[in-house]
Amino acid sequence: MTERPRHTHSDPSGLSRRDLLRLGASGAAAMALAAAPLPVLAQPLRGRARPGATASRRSRLGRSTVLAHGDLHNHTQLSDAIGDPAVAHAAMRDAGLDIAALTDHTVSAVALPDVDVCSFVPIPPAGTENPCTSVFGMDAEGFAATGRYADAVDDPGRFTALRGFEWSSPYLGHMNVWFSEQVTDPLATGGLTGEGLARIGLTEVALRALLAPLAGIPGVEETIEAILAGEDEGMGPFYDWLARSPQALLGGGADAIASFNHPNREPEAFDAFAFDVRVRERVVAMEIFNRREDYLFKNVAFGLPSPLVACLDAGWRVGLSGVTDEHGDDWGEPEGKGRTGLYVDGLDRAAVFSAMRDRRFFATRETGLRLDAAANGATRMGQLVPGRSPQLQVELDLAWDAERTGMPLEVQVLTSGDQVPTVTQVEEIRLPAPDEQRPLRLTVSVNRRATSWLVLRIADPSEPNDAPGPSGHPCNNRALAYTSPFYLADARPARSSGPRRPPTLPATDPEALFLGRHR
Hints:
- The chain is of the alpha+beta class.
- It is built from twelve helices and 20 strands.
């Protein structure tokens, strides 16, 4: 794949050539030294506001950790996107992100390494989709290449580049996996079978018709036969892999952490979020923002429960994330797409892993926004709140750029509900100035017999939700950010995951689902 020109950085001193000549050598050197950039985590957040107006990375809650913004879900020509993977991490760095991951789709190419279907298809030029990897996904060689690309750009203290993959079942759903030594795909772990495809309307005849343009390529027939022969066991085989050591005979991903991606987009919604206690500490996130969409009410109109309610009530303890899920080649650039704010104790892979494992993150789609929350003075978002009190004293840290100071906002308290979250409380606030010292304080009432969790949603009441829920729901305005959930000790037990699989969504296009284009 050919290199494309990299973005260039302006002089960090902000001095023009004419300024330097006017100051003379000694004066210019002094000015440049004084204006030299601080280490990344000592700088303000990189926002779109004028210089000097952006928020600090330090929470008002007195954390020892500091905030980094990341995008943990992106694609390239290694699967079904158009961008060159060799330049993606650097593009995200130059767009102002602190942490970035490539997570190309795996579908069936890992399961059959001896077949290597896509080696017979020429790699198209950058900016063009690869017709083979779009169908069969990234293989083990592509996963190894992703690691090399990340290593080439990773710069501890300045920028963290990650590799990962997206396990992509067209009916069960997609899951990101990061930090794993090994890679797998749905064909290898039970998420791509003839029975499963038939449930979304892709029969053997339809599957063969879909792959007919590739029929002359060696290995395509073997792939079809492997799909049709697969045993249908839902999410179980993938969770087996995630729970198993990489050193085990069959290999595994017990060194990894994972995420539920764009929940409720695929019709079977992770087997209705069927809970597996073995991997509760490995599945650390659920996307609540994907691209520009708020997923709080995703496909509720078609009879599915809100993915937030379904996931958390099933017993999963995830943080909430935002991602761009980029399939173009302008990684990190467009405004309004999801991103994740992570509280890290350093800017390197170990620190990012620790923040993700501990759910020290929030979801937003706003450049330069900071959000933090604590309950009863000690428990930070993403953690279990001890005690049995029906009231929580919540401290909320919220900052953006100075130009938005005073902006009217809502803090909405979301808990479990029937199909959609119950909003137990709405507090009207105004956005504090970035240099304001005191956090916001709220007293939140909780019914521990009705919910085992609560989430704070920060919303702009002047704008509508682009993906609204039931008429009159308080969350039908535009979300700016979500905290990771607070989990309640001694609350009611998590519900059963319910029916094994919800019904197929109306108007689902089987071909689009199989190709990963149901976006």
